[in-house]
Amino acid sequence: MSGRRWTLHAAVAAALFVSAGPGRAAEPACPLGNHNGRIAELLQFVFFDWNDVTIGPEAVAILDNVATVSSQVPQCPIWLGGHADTSGPRPYNLALSGRRAEAVVAWLRQHGVRAEIHVMGWGETRPLVETGDDVREPRNRRVEIAMAWDSAPPRGVAVMEPAPSSPLR
Q: What SS3 class is residue 143?
């Protein structure tokens, strides 16, 4: 793994998630940010078979954990980033990465997650493993799931120093 961590800058998060949308009541913002130099962060990866969007058995255990954590901090949004390997045309891979992320959204919703979920399909633009064109790399076929907060973490979530590259540092 490249050591990259997916986090969101606290000021951006506050601007995006404090205000109510049309027809919605204001909800408390997720306590994102750098809290005394420490944050609690959940970063998970769900991997997919080649050219597939099916949630497999290994993914279910990961998504169960995400659903449990989300139930304990429901005010914290979840960010999903879908990815693809370089096999196939770029436009197809971009669409496939979005379908993978949407499959994770559907699973989370079916299992009671009510948190705000933000989805982005990255296609083949952010690989975990750099490859040439038209390479089937299993670690690049994934959805990254991220949550972060600076209050007391939910049970089972470790408190850690922000990654050196994190904007929360």
A: strand
